[in-house]
Amino acid sequence: MQLNVALLGFGNVGRALAELLLAKTDTLRRDFDLSLRVVGISTGRHGHVIDRMGIDLRTALDAARHGFSLDGLQPNNRAIPSTERFLADCPADLVFESIPTNPHDGLPALAYIFGLLERGVHVVTANKGPVAFGYRELSDLAARKGVGFFFESTVMDGAPVLGVGREGLPAASLERITGILNSTTNYILTRMEAENLRFEDALAAAQQIGIAETDPTLDVDGWDAAIKTAILANVLMGADLRPADVDREGIRGISLQDVQAASVAGQRIRLVCEASRAPGGGIVARVAPRWLPREDLLATITGTTSIVNFESDVLPRLTIIEHNPGPATTAYGMLADMINIARGRHANLHQPVAPPASPDS
Ligand SMILES: NC(=O)c1ccc[n+]([C@@H]2O[C@H](COP(=O)([O-])OP(=O)(O)OC[C@H]3O[C@@H](n4cnc5c(N)ncnc54)[C@H](OP(=O)(O)O)[C@@H]3O)[C@@H](O)[C@H]2O)c1
Fold first, then answer.
1. Domain that holds residue 334
2. Do residues 152 and 179 both lie within one domain?
């Protein structure tokens, strides 16, 4: 099977994906009868390229590495003026989307994905924004058009968290999901405890090595964790939450004294994500720093490692831990999504529906 693909976004994740597509060319052909042709690459400020005959990924990676514009690779030398034009003209069957997350409304990626699905193009995204703000509408549209809309890498990078929840637990009723889903805050809390650092100093250390953004709001105020919690609740528990519906508290208010007091009491502070069925029906979700006994599995998670626990009526506790996440593991989640779409997995996806809240709850 020949699949024409395009990369919307060619930053850390897009380039890691390009490397992985090159590395897995033989495996894809041999094990999945999949032959890929990359027909388009689009960036924000570094140009766009469309080539129906196939773009040489090595050349594109070299151009990106040297900071050159992709416009120079355009076969007819006519630069593509915008992402909108790129999307309208690109002859891809499947688009990998990895542009920056907009935590406020998911745009412009949300609109790009709507347009692609509407035209019958499969979409794989690593971007949390469109999923947090448009999961239900985008999934319904994809189903109506008979195409795939997959987003495994939005939660715990390449770890198959959504895949296990959606496909590995048929007929299970998920009662509660807990986890540590934000690497930056876990790294900060780990260093505060291990080195007696104040919050500001641990944050500065995380920024210095590129784990925290210059503007750390999204991470330290719990927004990233809330977005991921909403995605898990919506996709796996049938909730219909927006990030603002998640009761959210970040770690900005955690002092070194708090961390030390927890330690003296044999505890650790972790930013815990939780989504659970409310007694009267419906799903409640929250993100908050919690004191946990040091032997609690969540408390043992250090540095940038992430963890998720599924509690269901059939498997009391199922845990997935992801070590050493990064652009390469994120790229793997996107590759796996593409293979699953090529295998037609999108055609029979189960979308759980949450039981409605009872009138007196
Ligand atoms: N990094 C990770 O490990 C990781 C893990 C999980 C999920 N994610 C998600 O993956 C996405 C990408 O992350 P990243 O680290 O690769 O970010 P990045 O390095 O900043 O790359 C973003 C890419 O998107 C391009 N871009 C921006 N606006 C665009 C537009 N309107 N049209 C087309 N291209 C556009 C940028 O082009 P210019 O550089 O030319 O502006 C750049 O190529 C984000 O949504 C992130 O939350 C990342």
1. 2-165+327-348
2. no
